[in-house]
Amino acid sequence: MVPMKQVTTYVELAAWPLIFAGFGHALLVLPDIVVHGLFSPPDERVRQAMETSSIVFLDLFRGSGSIWKAYVGFNVSHGVGIGFFALVNLLIARSEPELYLRLPALLRLDAAVCAILFASSLAFWFYAPAILTGWSLVFFVLALRGVRLSSRSEALPY
Fold it and tell me: pTM of the full predicted structure?
Protein backbone atom coordinates (compact mmCIF):
# COMPACT_ATOMS: atom_id res chain seq x y z
CA MET A 1 0.00 0.00 0.00
CA VAL A 2 1.27 3.44 -0.93
CA PRO A 3 0.56 6.03 1.76
CA MET A 4 -1.61 8.94 0.67
CA LYS A 5 1.14 11.30 1.86
CA GLN A 6 3.41 9.88 -0.84
CA VAL A 7 0.73 10.48 -3.50
CA THR A 8 0.29 14.09 -2.36
CA THR A 9 4.07 14.58 -2.41
CA TYR A 10 4.15 13.36 -6.01
CA VAL A 11 1.34 15.75 -6.96
CA GLU A 12 3.14 18.63 -5.28
CA LEU A 13 6.37 17.76 -7.08
CA ALA A 14 4.42 17.78 -10.35
CA ALA A 15 2.50 20.98 -9.60
CA TRP A 16 5.08 23.44 -8.24
CA PRO A 17 7.25 23.68 -11.39
CA LEU A 18 4.14 24.21 -13.53
CA ILE A 19 2.85 26.90 -11.16
CA PHE A 20 6.10 28.85 -11.29
CA ALA A 21 6.62 28.35 -15.00
CA GLY A 22 3.02 29.06 -15.99
CA PHE A 23 2.50 32.22 -13.97
CA GLY A 24 6.11 33.28 -14.62
CA HIS A 25 5.56 32.91 -18.36
CA ALA A 26 2.42 35.04 -18.19
CA LEU A 27 4.19 37.76 -16.18
CA LEU A 28 7.28 37.79 -18.40
CA VAL A 29 5.24 38.34 -21.56
CA LEU A 30 3.30 41.34 -20.17
CA PRO A 31 5.96 43.97 -21.00
CA ASP A 32 5.75 42.88 -24.64
CA ILE A 33 2.34 44.52 -24.78
CA VAL A 34 3.99 47.95 -24.82
CA VAL A 35 7.74 47.51 -25.35
CA HIS A 36 10.24 45.25 -27.06
CA GLY A 37 10.42 42.58 -24.33
CA LEU A 38 11.65 39.05 -23.85
CA PHE A 39 9.03 37.54 -26.17
CA SER A 40 9.54 40.00 -29.01
CA PRO A 41 11.35 38.84 -32.10
CA PRO A 42 14.97 40.09 -32.22
CA ASP A 43 14.27 41.73 -35.58
CA GLU A 44 11.95 44.70 -34.95
CA ARG A 45 10.67 44.46 -38.53
CA VAL A 46 9.14 41.06 -37.73
CA ARG A 47 7.21 42.52 -34.80
CA GLN A 48 6.04 45.43 -36.95
CA ALA A 49 4.84 43.00 -39.62
CA MET A 50 2.99 41.01 -36.93
CA GLU A 51 1.38 44.21 -35.60
CA THR A 52 0.06 45.14 -39.03
CA SER A 53 -1.08 41.68 -40.13
CA SER A 54 -4.44 40.16 -39.33
CA ILE A 55 -5.52 36.57 -38.90
CA VAL A 56 -7.89 34.93 -41.35
CA PHE A 57 -9.92 33.46 -38.48
CA LEU A 58 -10.59 36.96 -37.08
CA ASP A 59 -11.51 38.22 -40.54
CA LEU A 60 -14.18 35.50 -40.79
CA PHE A 61 -15.96 37.03 -37.80
CA ARG A 62 -15.21 40.65 -38.66
CA GLY A 63 -13.01 40.86 -35.61
CA SER A 64 -10.14 43.20 -35.20
CA GLY A 65 -6.69 42.43 -33.99
CA SER A 66 -3.27 41.57 -35.20
CA ILE A 67 -1.04 38.55 -35.19
CA TRP A 68 1.03 40.33 -32.54
CA LYS A 69 -1.93 40.81 -30.19
CA ALA A 70 -2.94 37.19 -30.71
CA TYR A 71 0.63 36.03 -30.02
CA VAL A 72 0.84 38.00 -26.77
CA GLY A 73 -2.66 36.90 -25.77
CA PHE A 74 -1.89 33.24 -26.46
CA ASN A 75 1.25 33.44 -24.34
CA VAL A 76 -0.52 35.15 -21.42
CA SER A 77 -3.54 32.82 -21.46
CA HIS A 78 -1.33 29.74 -21.92
CA GLY A 79 0.79 30.66 -18.90
CA VAL A 80 -2.20 31.50 -16.71
CA GLY A 81 -4.00 28.31 -17.78
CA ILE A 82 -1.04 26.08 -16.94
CA GLY A 83 -0.49 27.92 -13.66
CA PHE A 84 -4.11 27.49 -12.59
CA PHE A 85 -4.20 23.85 -13.73
CA ALA A 86 -1.27 23.11 -11.44
CA LEU A 87 -2.57 25.31 -8.61
CA VAL A 88 -5.88 23.43 -8.54
CA ASN A 89 -3.97 20.15 -8.23
CA LEU A 90 -1.83 21.57 -5.44
CA LEU A 91 -4.95 22.70 -3.56
CA ILE A 92 -6.58 19.28 -3.98
CA ALA A 93 -3.41 17.53 -2.80
CA ARG A 94 -3.21 19.71 0.30
CA SER A 95 -6.87 19.96 1.28
CA GLU A 96 -8.75 16.95 -0.21
CA PRO A 97 -6.19 14.32 -1.24
CA GLU A 98 -8.78 11.55 -0.87
CA LEU A 99 -10.45 13.01 -3.94
CA TYR A 100 -7.70 11.35 -5.99
CA LEU A 101 -8.70 7.99 -4.49
CA ARG A 102 -12.39 8.55 -5.19
CA LEU A 103 -11.77 9.95 -8.66
CA PRO A 104 -8.50 8.63 -10.10
CA ALA A 105 -9.55 9.99 -13.50
CA LEU A 106 -8.29 13.35 -12.25
CA LEU A 107 -4.73 12.06 -12.21
CA ARG A 108 -5.23 10.41 -15.60
CA LEU A 109 -6.30 13.80 -16.97
CA ASP A 110 -3.34 15.47 -15.27
CA ALA A 111 -0.96 12.99 -16.86
CA ALA A 112 -2.66 13.44 -20.25
CA VAL A 113 -2.35 17.22 -20.07
CA CYS A 114 1.33 16.94 -19.16
CA ALA A 115 1.91 14.42 -21.95
CA ILE A 116 0.38 16.84 -24.46
CA LEU A 117 2.46 19.72 -23.07
CA PHE A 118 5.58 17.53 -23.18
CA ALA A 119 4.95 16.53 -26.81
CA SER A 120 4.27 20.17 -27.72
CA SER A 121 7.49 21.19 -25.99
CA LEU A 122 9.48 18.69 -28.03
CA ALA A 123 7.80 19.66 -31.28
CA PHE A 124 7.51 23.43 -31.02
CA TRP A 125 9.49 24.92 -28.15
CA PHE A 126 12.89 24.33 -26.61
CA TYR A 127 14.49 22.11 -23.98
CA ALA A 128 13.45 23.96 -20.76
CA PRO A 129 9.67 23.43 -21.20
CA ALA A 130 10.34 19.83 -22.27
CA ILE A 131 12.32 19.14 -19.09
CA LEU A 132 9.72 20.84 -16.92
CA THR A 133 6.67 19.18 -18.46
CA GLY A 134 8.47 15.82 -18.57
CA TRP A 135 9.25 16.17 -14.85
CA SER A 136 5.61 16.94 -14.06
CA LEU A 137 4.42 14.07 -16.26
CA VAL A 138 6.62 11.60 -14.38
CA PHE A 139 5.31 12.74 -10.98
CA PHE A 140 1.65 12.73 -12.05
CA VAL A 141 2.14 9.17 -13.35
CA LEU A 142 3.80 8.18 -10.05
CA ALA A 143 0.86 9.70 -8.15
CA LEU A 144 -1.59 7.78 -10.34
CA ARG A 145 0.37 4.57 -9.74
CA GLY A 146 0.27 5.25 -6.01
CA VAL A 147 -3.50 5.76 -6.08
CA ARG A 148 -3.95 2.52 -8.03
CA LEU A 149 -1.80 0.59 -5.54
CA SER A 150 -3.66 2.15 -2.61
CA SER A 151 -7.02 1.28 -4.14
CA ARG A 152 -5.99 -2.33 -4.79
CA SER A 153 -4.60 -2.88 -1.31
CA GLU A 154 -7.74 -1.47 0.28
CA ALA A 155 -9.85 -3.87 -1.79
CA LEU A 156 -7.87 -6.91 -0.67
CA PRO A 157 -9.55 -8.96 2.11
CA TYR A 158 -6.53 -9.09 4.44
Answer: 0.83
